[in-house]
Write a structure and sequence with these properties.
Number of strands of chain B: 10
Radius of gyration of chain A: 27 Å
Largest sheet of chain B: 4 strands, mixed
Number of helices of chain B: 3
Oligomer: heterodimer
Number of strands of chain A: 3
Helix content of chain A: 55-70%
Strand order of the largest sheet of chain A: 2-3
CATH class of chain B: Alpha Beta
Helix content of chain B: 10-25%
Order of helices and strands of chain B: EHEHEEEEEHEEE
Order of helices and strands of chain A: EHEEHHHH
CATH topology of chain B: Deoxyribonuclease I, Chain A
Strand content of chain B: 35-45%
Number of domains of chain B: 1
Largest sheet of chain A: 2 strands, antiparallel
Distance between the termini of chain B: 27 Å
Radius of gyration of chain B: 16 Å
Shape of chain A: elongated
CATH architecture of chain B: 4-Layer Sandwich
Largest interface: A-B, 28 and 42 residues
Distance between the termini of chain A: 50 Å
Number of helices of chain A: 5
Structural class of chain A: mainly alpha
Strand order of the largest sheet of chain B: 1-2-4-3
Amino acid sequence: MSRIDRFLLSEDWCLQWPNCLQVALLRGLSDHCPLQLSVDEENWGPRPTRILKCWQEMSGYKQFVKEKWHSFLLDGWGGYVLREKLKLMKEALKEWHSVHAKNIHGKIDVLKNRLSELDEAGEEGGLSEGDIVELSDITHEIHSLSCVSASISWQQS
Amino acid sequence: MKLVSWNVRGLEGVEKRKEVRKLVSEKKPYILCLQETKLAVCDDILCLLMWGDTAHAYSYQSSVGASGGLLIMWDTLEVEVWSTMSQDHVLIIQGKFIRTNEEFYLFNIYAPFETRAKQQLWGMLSVKLQLLRVEKVCVCGDFNAIRRLEERRSLRGGVVTQDI
């Protein structure tokens, strides 16, 4: 059937009711479908993509996003390509998150254990130069992971 | 809030009226816009039959001979209408949604087939819409026109032209 029936809405209408949805209902005796325009206050559309603020602070994140974004090669008009790329990006970020930003507390515990091992060795006076470098790296790492963890709990609270 | 627009292709038959009744009782629209009623007169009895006995009001434009004819019915508990205007191929109501107190204009359109007449209608609508450009306006109905060729899908080989 040709699309000759429609609802056209003014800009102000759309601003007032941004969730307008137009659907064609089943036709019966008429050769036209009834059209329904509904404003569903409950329907906020698709779930928005969320990002965690702390991702940007984590090393490798910006590079990852840049490379992923350019690796998606899609054909079509601009709006379509953008939408599809954002969809793919969302999936890629989910994976990146589970590798890099999940189980922060577990990661901190592992580092703390290693730290205590090194501390004990230090008390016995047996720290190599490498150990000392590692000690400072671990302290640094624990600090940044704690910041990430604090940022996530703040954003999700 | 819900609006329904439908080209009924004639309301003379009882069956068609029953279909409208079913549509209203199922969808419970605030406003129902019908095109091609093919009726010279729409009266209280007809509207009661189609809308049911809940509070309602209506405004209509007579058909020209056996063609055209527009009807708008609305739920008076949800919508208050204070002005209606009828002009060639267009029936306009102005009012507000009671719950939210938002004012609006609603145009119910049944566009003619002939290109010349259609162009005239578009011209008239443009002028009106230009005047209402800061208002909340909904224009609905049968435009007898597609906007892009993909929108043409006719079983009979169409009479529609791309000219919106």
